[in-house]
Every structure is written in C-alpha cells, then in structure tokens.
Amino acid sequence: MSRGVRRASRTYKPMESKRIKLDAETVEAIARRAVELLEARGHQKRELVDAAELARRFGIERSWVYTHAIELGAVKLGDGPKPRLRFDPEIAARVLRRVGEESAADPPARSGERAGQPQRGRGSEVSLLPIRGRDDSGSAE
C-alpha cells in the first residue's frame, strides 16, 4: 500500500464519553425537537418557483412578475449579468394582497392586457366622434 492512501473499508467507532451516553432513540428525539424549534422560528424549507409558475398561480402576466421582481421578493440564483430568479409564493401572495388593497395605479396585468398601459374602452366618460357616413347605431347611412 502506498503512502497517503487510506483503506476504504475502515470502520469508525462512536465517540465515547464518560459523562453522556445517548442511545439512538434519544438522538432521534433531539433531532425532532430541533426541527420543531427551527420551524417555529420560520426556518422551515421555503418553496421557490420561477416567474412563469408564479404568474400561472396568481393569474398575472409573467412580464409583470419580472417588472416587479424586487417587490415580490425575488431570489437571484447566481451572480452573472442575468441571474435566474426564483420567488417564494407566500411572500408574493402578501405583496399581491397589499397591491389589491391599495388599488395601485399599476395593478397586475391580466391576460390580454399590458402592464403599465392605460385600460381603454372600459366605462370611459368621453364620447367619441362619429365616423362619417355612419349614424349613432354604427350602421351605414
């Protein structure tokens, strides 16, 4: 056997202590309690989804998700010029509820609408000029 190479079949003995001896059941109980404490403090595993999935779940346009990525709590994966973004749906839901409550000037766009564009033809108080050769009903004169 060459120097510096160790055997792969080496067995390890558990560390023995003269003060504390823990059996497998006790170790398992400690581990379960540690998980409970972490979850209670909000350290549980977060679900992260991409912009397309977030848009699908909330019925908004993917472009709106990217435009409002910072407000929605985007997490950058990587440090390049265009890192992939992931979102925590719970954080996004809180933001979208707040947007709905504040009736923001730029609400999430629904399918067929563009974010940031004024909505036309919905309850407008402005009367339009008639087209020449047509009466008020829209039929030719």
What order do the helices and strands come in, and which of them pair?
Blueprint: H1 24-40, H2 51-58, H3 62-67, E1 75-77, E2 84-86, H4 89-102
Question: What does this 3D model show about the protein?
Answer:
The protein has 141 residues and is mainly alpha-helical. The chain is built from four helices and two strands. Strands 1-2 form a two-stranded antiparallel ribbon. Strand 1 (75-77) and strand 2 (84-86) form a beta hairpin. The longest helix has 17 residues, at 24-40. The chain is elongated. The mean pLDDT is 75.
Number of strands: 2
Q: What do the pLDDT scores average to?
A: 75
Strands side by side in the biggest sheet:
1-2
Relative helix content: 25-40%
Q: Please work out how many helical segments DSSP would assign.
A: 4
Strand content: under 5%
Q: Describe the biggest sheet?
A: 2 strands, antiparallel
CA-atom Rg in angstroms: 30 Å
First and last CA, distance: 104 Å
Poorly predicted regions: none
Q: Which outline best applies?
A: elongated
